[in-house]
């Protein structure tokens, strides 16, 4: 009992130390006494170190867990800081989720290996399997307990407040106290969960996952059987499709892993489940290969971006799992052991790829910027299709590509490229200082159809505030690729039941998205109303849509709808 109480006390103290350290670190960061990258590195190190110590303490004694956690934290934090050098400031690093995802994998994958290394050996699959799932279950259970404790604290505070006692409220108002309570509770919960390892174990979850294996097998088989009938074009061509396929591959691999368990003695044994596990393992390469092909089609059409590189990395890893699983089954006896060892190999591969993602060897922004520049230079990307906004978000490599484009734009005959670089992107547009100046410039800039509808235009615009005028004018000055304003107004009698004419103001915001505003006069005042598509799909091509209105190619036509009137209320069937 003394040993148990000492372990609980040590874990509670470790949790308190984690919470207090993170609070103090937050105070230091808020005061800005550290350079950005030093603050990033210190924050990353502290988060990984304390998280890893708490996750490994129990299977390992606290000193050994701390030593292993420090090594993992040092490598992960160092690589994250290295990756931040791609950007002028560290905020740019988190404009895309891939670096944070790679950092998380670097911080978590080594933990079961460190635990196994202290026991039977770092490649011992039963230990790796048990500890991987054990860390997940212990952490989840401990955080649930933390949530329950906080719920009880707030409930207790509310109850005592009924009789005028505000002690709890005053305590948690002290900035460091919530951090200490959370840390102590988490450490204590983890200690208790480790003590009850036979009760709070991953085996319940693993057994439940096995129940899903035949269902996923049936879905996967139906999908594969439908491919020849539906054709590949229905399934390919976008990252969302690839993401769905990769998610299914991950689910299938997880279910196969849960079915074969740590050893043959604990794996599925019945003929039905054995065949289902083999069948799902054999099918695993199909969604992985289709995902890889979908990504390749997208890259071939539009080139590399960080998103596509991240998806390609995931597809290659999924293919690795798929090939290992399928070959293991095809080789016959011993297929479970081959899958288990393949899991170890692929975990190490995932660790290596995650580390490379944060190094210059796999600089997604640099690869993407070079590829987009090359595609423009060899004519595969037209000036109108050049994604200047994306380059602006790709840190220093994107800035270097933009500098190269600006050098090209300075050459004779490159006026279209110069206009594209000048008028697109997130750069702030200079606006007049006074409200009257903004409205005057908006009237002068906003293309109008029909051109004679200026009285209606002026009446409608006069009904809105200066901030709205500034917003519309800013969109107008984010010009189309051909240099025309990024806005247009179409005036017409959209609502015959209202007096006067209405208008639709269509504009393109700085990110290139279309914005529609319906301007009407109702109840004696000018109002903004939403613009909805009868088909359910809004136009996406900003340049084409705005250009069509500006050129007068868009006409006012009756809506193809009929209504009924019940109890004085008009009713229609919703078009979508």
TrEMBL record:
Q: Does the keyword Transport apply?
A: no
Give the domain of life.
Answer: Bacteria
Q: InterPro entries from the entry?
A: DUF4153
Which keywords accompany this UniProt record? Answer: Membrane, Transmembrane, Transmembrane helix
Give a yes or no for keyword Membrane in this entry: yes
The transmembrane residues are 9-26, 38-58, 65-87, 99-119, 140-164, 176-196, 208-229, 235-260, 272-297, 309-330, 342-362
Protein name (Swiss-Prot/TrEMBL): DUF4153 domain-containing protein
Tell me the organism's taxonomic lineage.
Bacteria, Pseudomonadati, Pseudomonadota, Alphaproteobacteria, Rhodobacterales
